[in-house]
Design a protein that fits this description.
Elements (H helix, E strand, L loop, with lengths): L3 E3 L8 E3 L7 E6 L9 E7 L4 E6 L2 E6 L5 E3 L3 E3 L25
Parallel strand pairs: 1-2
Antiparallel strand pairs: 3-4, 4-5, 5-6, 6-7, 7-8
Length: 103
């Protein structure tokens, strides 16, 4: 079985979607026949910032930057380590230290 390329004649993996120079590469996922936009999702490799973004219609809901940061819903950006250590936290946000002290 060979590789399939969209926007390229020499795909490097099983499926490669390549945008033209300085344009985004976009993969669209639509849950039905396209009669509304609420069930349309896009995975975009953005050329302008070298980031990978997830969109619901036109709303960006999450992105990974080329620097390794995770941005969620344009309001939360994580640039460091994030670890969830409790299986059943009692708080909306529960973090612990090495001595298991809640904040």
């Amino acid at each position: 079985m060979g590789n399939v390329g969209i926007g390229t004649t020499a795909p490097e993996t099983r499926l490669e979607i390549q945008g033209a120079e300085a344009t985004d590469a976009v993969l669209a996922l639509d849950a039905d026949d396209g009669d509304d936009t609420a069930d349309t999702w896009f995975l975009k490799s953005l050329a302008s910032g070298n980031s990978l973004s997830f969109f619901n219609d036109t709303t960006e809901v999450a992105a990974f930057t080329s620097a390794g940061a995770l941005q969620i819903d344009s309001t939360l950006t994580a640039n460091g380590n994030i670890t969830v250590t409790k299986a059943d936290p009692s708080l909306i946000l529960n973090t612990t230290t090495a001595t298991d002290t809640d904040f």
